[in-house]
Specification:
Elements: H1 3-17, H2 21-72, H3 80-85, E1 103-106, E2 111-115, E3 128-130
Antiparallel strand pairs: 1-2, 2-3
Amino acid sequence: MDKRSSVIIEGRRAQESGVTLIEVMIVVAIMAMLAAGVAFAVLPRYHDAQIKTAKTSASTIRQAVQSWQMTNNETSCPSITDLVSSKQVDSANTKDPWGEEYAMTCTDDEIVVTSSGPDKKRGTKDDISIPEGAGAGAQSP
């Protein structure tokens, strides 16, 4: 075998062992479809988790307000700052999952804590109130 045919054979081997652009594009397309499927399955669960977190945090703040009222012998609504300074609430739990402050309304017989929900607008149907169904559109004092 001469030198020239040896180079041709080695060139063919290199061509056969490489990956074509089409093969790479197919793999990338498959990975993109898998990622889209995962995102499609996970996003609704993330939304549900945000709502659950908002309800839990609002309930915690409501309990903290009740505790603050008993400790201070008050019936008025404390501010979030009052709750944090008296160590009733951790400063990390003062905002809802959408980055908005919780609103609190206190009457003689009820404490309502409200999150403005995913749309970040108070008084809309996606607001989250604790106790549930009470005080839609509640405002902070």
